[in-house]
Amino acid sequence: MAHTASQDIIIIGRNIAGLGAAYALGKAGYSSLIIGPETRLYGGFQLAPNGFSALEALGLRQNIDAGALAVNAIQLKSLERAETLAEISHDDTLPYAGISRQHILDCLLAAVKNLPVTMMDSHLKALDLGRGSAQNRLLLETGDIISAPLLVGADGPAGLCRSAITGYQPEQAASDYLAMRAEIPASTLAKSFSNPVCQLWLGSGSHFVCYPFTHQGQSLVNAVYCMKRSALSSGASEAIQQTFSRHPVLSSFADNNIVWQETDLPDCESLPVWQRGGLTLIGDAAHQMPPHLAQGAGQVFEDIACLSECLTQAPPEQALRDMARIRSHDVTAIMQKARQSGSVMRLDGLSARMRNNFIKMAGGGFVEDWLRSVWYGPKR
């Protein structure tokens, strides 16, 4: 039977951002309710030094490290010529790894288990932000109405929380660029793809990324092929066959047994304002990060670490406000750099050949300098 209840802090979204926010609040002594269905995640993340630094600050690194596979280098390669253009080498002072998305989620679920965090397996149907002293009200698919003075929106870029901030629900139109993603058992690929290396293959109007990770003891390779829709003469699966089947190095990715998942890559943006009334956004509800700098997970962890730090200096209402102010500024610069990187990866024809020649001449040091501000963040 539907009923009305009241909470202090409600988090919308039972995902990495939502669980991370609950962890930061719970560690500071504040209880929260997470609303959202149980989530199962596919594939892997690349986690760079800034992500590991955030995990260290949160006290979560040890558990997540247990499922991380260190990546010793990033290799930039020419898709057409099958040659290495440049390499960025990592060592113990520059942690970089491939990690199962589900492993990260499982670690966060374990981390909140002994904290004052409860969960409700339900979808949010409507959201009413209170005016003045009125509380925010949430209508669930069960018909229940729950109110709270503070809401944390972690329901993603297409969620109701983002539209409550912006005032509109964006249309889900097909983007000009798409990604084909696959989680592939390493044993089915050439042995070189099990090496602890992230490979970025730069083509003409397309690029391909692959790196190893593990999940539940299985060695896997996360593979993502990105291309322009306008370049497709047939379906995306056929484009993969055309690209890989005769390639001297990547032919094993043309195996018909590999299941590729098609995903739109929209023109991502970070909102300039993450807060309205008692609602504060976090994670990709506030900043849908383009994949071109492998910062999807890293920037979420930086949000959570920032919130955790703010909670040591102020109660939740002020801490959420401070986190939104600090992170909205920082993420804007990362977003800009990610979009610039995507533009470079999408070059085609003569421009693509000139890009590859430049990278080959400039070397890995140039690319590492480009990434340095992302990996080590702003100095305050």
Write up this protein.
The longest helix is centred in the C-terminal third of the chain and has 30 residues, at 316-345. This protein has 10 helices and 20 strands. The strands form 4 sheets. A 7-stranded mixed beta sheet has the order 7-6-15-16-17-14-18, sandwiched between helices. The radius of gyration is 21 Å and the shape is globular. With 380 residues, the chain is an alpha/beta fold. The termini are far apart. The protein has a single domain, classed as FAD/NAD(P)-binding domain, CATH 3.50.50.
Summarize the structure.
34% of the residues lie in helices and 27% in strands.
Strand content: 25-35%
Describe the main β-sheet briefly: 7 strands, mixed
Which descriptor suits the 3D outline? globular
Query: What number of domains?
Result: 1
Low-confidence stretches: none
Task: Report the radius of gyration as a whole number of Å.
Answer: 21 Å
Topology order in helix (H) and strand (E) letters: EEHEEHHEEEEHEEEEEHEEEEHEEEHHHH
**Strand arrangement, largest sheet?**
7-6-15-16-17-14-18
The CATH superfamily is identified as FAD/NAD(P)-binding domain
Topology of this structure?
Blueprint: E1 4-6, E2 9-12, H1 16-27, E3 32-35, E4 44-47, H2 49-58, H3 61-65, E5 68-70, E6 73-78, E7 83-89, E8 97-100, H4 101-112, E9 117-120, E10 124-128, E11 136-140, E12 145-148, E13 150-153, H5 160-166, E14 177-185, E15 197-202, E16 206-215, E17 218-228, H6 236-244, E18 261-264, E19 275-276, E20 279-281, H7 296-311, H8 316-345, H9 349-362, H10 364-376
Parallel strand pairs: 1-12, 2-3, 2-13, 3-9, 6-15, 13-20
Antiparallel strand pairs: 4-8, 5-8, 6-7, 10-11, 11-12, 14-17, 14-18, 15-16, 16-17, 19-20
